[in-house]
Amino acid sequence: MQEATFLILTALADGSQHGYGIIAEIQEISGGRVRLRAGTLYTALDRLRADGLIGVDREEIVEGRLRRYYRLTPEGTRRLAAEAARLQANARAALSRLKPSGVVT
Amino acid sequence: MSGPSPLERGYRRVLACYPKAFRRESEEEILAVLLATAHEGQRRVRLAESADLLMGAVRMHFGLSRSPRPVLNAVRLMCAGAVLELGALVTVLVTLGSVRSAIVQEFTAAQWHTAMLTQIVPAEAGAPIVAGGWLWLAWANGRGYDWARPAFMALFGLLTIGLLIGLGDALYAPADLIAMAVPWLVGLAAIVLIFSKTASPYYQQEPVQQ
Prior knowledge:
Helix content of chain B: over 70%
Oligomer: heterodimer
Shape of chain A: elongated
Number of helices of chain A: 4
Radius of gyration of chain B: 23 Å
Strand content of chain B: under 5%
Radius of gyration of chain A: 16 Å
Number of strands of chain A: 3
Order of helices and strands of chain B: HHHHHHHH
Largest interface: A-B, 21 and 25 residues
Largest sheet of chain B: none
Largest sheet of chain A: 3 strands, antiparallel
Helix content of chain A: 55-70%
Structural class of chain A: alpha+beta
Strand order of the largest sheet of chain A: 1-3-2
């Protein structure tokens, strides 16, 4: 799973979000490191919808403009959980091997 | 009542590059996000934003947002193949003088004239068409049309014939043969990808409609 995909799914893990909300959440989750642009975001959302990992939760009109909220599907939740566990296991293995070098505590 | 801002008009102009179906469903939504993420006092679409949106538009047109990784890579190779095909055309034109000098002993002026008319001119005239074929099949494969893979095989067959003819022909310089072999190799790599186990199910689904 690509990092952008992982971050989008993570941004939706605790509730539905609209496009701008997803961008803001990702910026926060990544500590400001990742700032998705609109073109990249909507290409990814299109793919995730096609793959059945996210769906449209609801639509609102705010200040005359369409705001569409996205949510994780059960399959999206399962895939995110599996990917998070995989990354966690890898990170744990890396950290334990780095311990003797003293780079990490 | 004031109309849309120059920035909004700029965004709409770039968004016009997206497929109609996508714009119908998502233009207003993506526009709202673009305006919300614009910098304070921004009046024009920035270069990086345009590049990102145009890349997104290309991906949507080619169906790349939904295609599996091997198909995505194959489409990239096919686009590269189109460029390389035109590169081969330029190489043949550039080396034509040196080829003429090298074979001046073997060919009379009439023979050279005939060879030009029957081989080089048709090959050169056909190169842009073949490049167009690469792009058309990149589009078709990206969208997952079931005929796209056999059609690309047919194009690859033509490339193979062209390369074999070139190898046995004194009219081409070594540089020409290399320039012809590179797109052939790119085509071969694309075939391996589109016929891979991961890619095959994509061609059995309903093609991407955007």
